[in-house]
Amino acid sequence: MELAAGLRLVSPAIRQTGAHAMSMRKAPFGFAAGLIAALVGVTGGGGWEARAQEPSRAEQLIKYRQSIYRVLNGNFAPLAAMATGKAPFDAEAAAMRAERVAYLAAMLDEAYPADSQAGAPTRVKPEIWANRAEFDGLLEDMQSKTAELAKVAGGGDQAAITAAFGAAGKSCKACHDKFRKE
Ligand code: HEC
Question: Are residues 62 and 17 in the same domain?
Fold first, then answer.
């Protein structure tokens, strides 16, 4: 049953011919094994090499954190362009961007475990973990400012959005100045 469900996900085309689908159900093992190997990236002969290339836990955590910031910034930058007049104001786009920023900001709660301090290129300062309460305070402040921005952006008032954007931007800078390396 599980395999049949998997097949539906992988290839809707297989479902189109009932006979073909039946034969896949009767002798699916080779196909399933190949599929699983492809999904986990391990092949019979190259297992060790494949495992040796897996990123370390620290590397995964650091990349995960930086990815959140990158996607966040990818949505914050268009708001900056609107707020500074470099792009025309678009209420709908502003609301969408601000909502995404607030959502991504909340995800940063889980982005600073102790084992994400080193092990891959990162700009974190060790003071984050030494002054965790202060760091968390700055993170919370940014989360509340971006939540406020999302709320205000939903209302479509350009002046209010620009002001809320400015406050959010300041909350980013406050933390970067203290806890991010150049
Ligand atoms: C509570 C602290 C804090 C707040 C608030 C904060 N940042 Fe950061 N930010 C960091 C730290 C620390 C790093 C370095 C992460 C790393 O290299 O592992 C970083 C990295 C980044 C990066 C670089 C990501 C990369 O590696 O490509 C961008 C872009 C960024 N932040 C944007 C923002 C924006 C925009 C905001 C506000 C909406 C914000 N940050 C708020 C601490 C913060």
Answer: no
Residues 165, 92 within the same domain:
yes
Over 9-43, what HEC string results?
HHCHHHHHCHHHHHHHHHCCHHHHHHHHHHHHCCC
Strand partners, 1: none
In this structure, which amino acid lies at residue 89? Answer: F
Candidate of 109, 172, 177 to mutate for ligand 1, largest count of ligand atoms within 8 Å of Cβ: 172
Instruction: Answer yes or no: are the C-beta atoms of 70 and 123 closer than 8 Å.
Output: no
- How far, in Å, is the centroid of ligand 1 from the Cα of 21? 49
| Digit-coded pLDDT (tens) for 104-159 | 999 999 999 999 999 999 999 999 999 999 999 999 999 999 999 999 999 999 99
Ligand 1 midpoint to CA 162 (Å): 21
Domain shared by 67 and 133, yes or no: yes
Question: Residue 146's CB: how many other CB atoms inside 10 A?
Answer: 29
Return d(Cα 180, Cα 123) in angstroms, integer. Answer: 6
Say which CATH number the domain at 76 has. 1.20.120.10
If asked whether residues 158 and 80 sit together in one domain, one would say yes
CA dist., res. 136 & res. 133, Å (int): 5
For residue 24, the enclosing domain spans 2-52
Residues 143, 104 within the same domain? yes
